[in-house]
Amino acid sequence: LYHRMYALNRSPVVRLNHAVAVAEACGADAGLQMLDDLESTGLLSSYAPYFVARSELLLRSGRHSEAMAALLAAREYAHSELEQANIARRLREFPPSSS
Fold first, then answer.
1. HSE-up (13 A, CA, CB side) for residue 37
2. 3-state DSSP call for residue 61?
3. Each residue of 26-85: pLDDT tens digit?
4. Burial (0-12, 13-18, 19+ Cβ within 10 Å), 32
5. Does residue 77 contact residue 46 with C-beta atoms inside 8 Å?
6. How far apart are CA 74 and CA 51, in angstroms?
7. Sequence-separated (6 or more) residues with CB below 8 Å from residue 84
8. Segments in the chain forming alpha helices (H)
9. For residues 3 and 61, what is the distance between their CA atoms, to the nearest angstrom?
10. Which of 5, 31, 37, 93 is most buried, with most CB under 10 Å away?
């Protein structure tokens, strides 16, 4: 469905949502590969939800320090109070580093 949606609306946000759906269906690493491809375009370089999604998938892959860095980037780009509150909650709940 995302392929069809992207054909109608070639939005980087559609691609982001597709990556999240792929991660749910095929695993975090598959979604991260799509996010890496999307990151190389620079189209979402200051879009907080991109970094929140990236953080979640990195966390699922056990890459805690990278996940924290992505979440801190999300905080930097968050514009609305709701986004800021969500990111602050995620930061408080972030698992302690195992390294």
1. 11
2. coil
3. 999 999 999 999 999 999 999 999 999 999 999 999 999 999 999 999 999 999 999 999
4. buried
5. yes
6. 5
7. 75, 78
8. 2-8, 12-26, 28-39, 48-60, 64-77, 81-93
9. 25
10. 31
